[in-house]
Specification:
Length: 245
């Protein structure tokens, strides 16, 4: 990376996304999102499209969000590739507490800004698959073999990546109104994340968030792991409860 580029990233690590969203440069957004997600696919392309559309629907100035104040919020309804497109483009992530996950299994996201009554919910139209089939006729057949049945050969995996890339770039070239449905909503947002001092668990010696220790009873002050306390986990199945280790 050239020194001047490096300096730009030091000043604002999201400057390429900002420029791309302002110009509605969908292909650059897709490439940058795939850098985060790891590969190209229709899901991440839909997340990219929903995010650019949502930022413009709210106020394109919201693209300058950097996660510090939790003022821009994204509420995703699926834990799949779509969510990574949203996180990459908007900067609303699990780590900065600006991403909310609702375990509904819908290709949809709501964008809102704290202090405003209205937000925008954006969802994919069911027939977006028609565009995928036209651009990459083998995509769903290969997805069945490689991803769902997990029986694809090395050649199948290579072919699947190529079809997924074609499908992704085809989608982001479509007008928003062909792929997305938008509606104004009154969002339900969580309170801002609590900030509590970290605590060292007296049993394992690890530093733990102050909100993630047992609050009462004989295991008071211990981490969930040492106390065998139930905890929640976000995984491929959605949100599941684990009953201690």
């Amino acid at each position: 990376m050239a020194p001047e580029q490096f300096e730009q990233f030091k000043q604002n690590p999201r400057h390429l996304f900002i420029k791309a969203v302002e110009k509605k440069d969908m292909e650059t957004c897709l490439v940058k999102a795939a850098e985060f997600h790891g590969h190209f696919c229709p899901g991440v392309a839909l997340g990219v499209m929903a995010s650019v559309c949502g930022l413009w629907e709210l106020d394109v100035a919201s693209v300058f969000f950097d996660g510090i104040m939790e003022d821009l919020m994204a509420v995703v309804e699926v834990n799949a590739c779509f969510a990574d497109g949203v996180q990459a483009v908007t900067g609303c992530t699990f780590g900065n507490n600006a991403l909310v996950y609702r375990d509904l299994g819908r290709i949809a996201v709501t964008f809102a800004q704290r202090g405003r009554k209205n937000g925008v919910r954006i969802r994919a139209v069911p027939d977006y698959r028609d565009h995928v089939n036209k651009a990459a006729p083998q995509f769903y057949k290969l997805m069945e073999k490689v991803i769902i049945k997990r029986k694809g050969s090395a050649d199948d995996i290579i072919a699947f990546r190529l079809e997924a890339r074609k499908a992704a770039f085809c989608l982001v070239k479509q007008p928003f109104e062909k792929i997305l449905i938008t509606e104004k909503v009154k969002p339900i947002l969580p309170k801002q994340a609590p900030v509590k001092p970290s605590i060292v668990c007296p049993e394992c010696g690890e530093e733990i968030m102050g909100s993630k220790i047992v609050q009462a009873g004989k295991h008071k002050g211990l981490c969930f792991t040492c106390s065998r306390h139930p905890y929640l986990e976000v995984e491929g199945q959605g949100i599941v409860q684990r009953n201690g280790i």
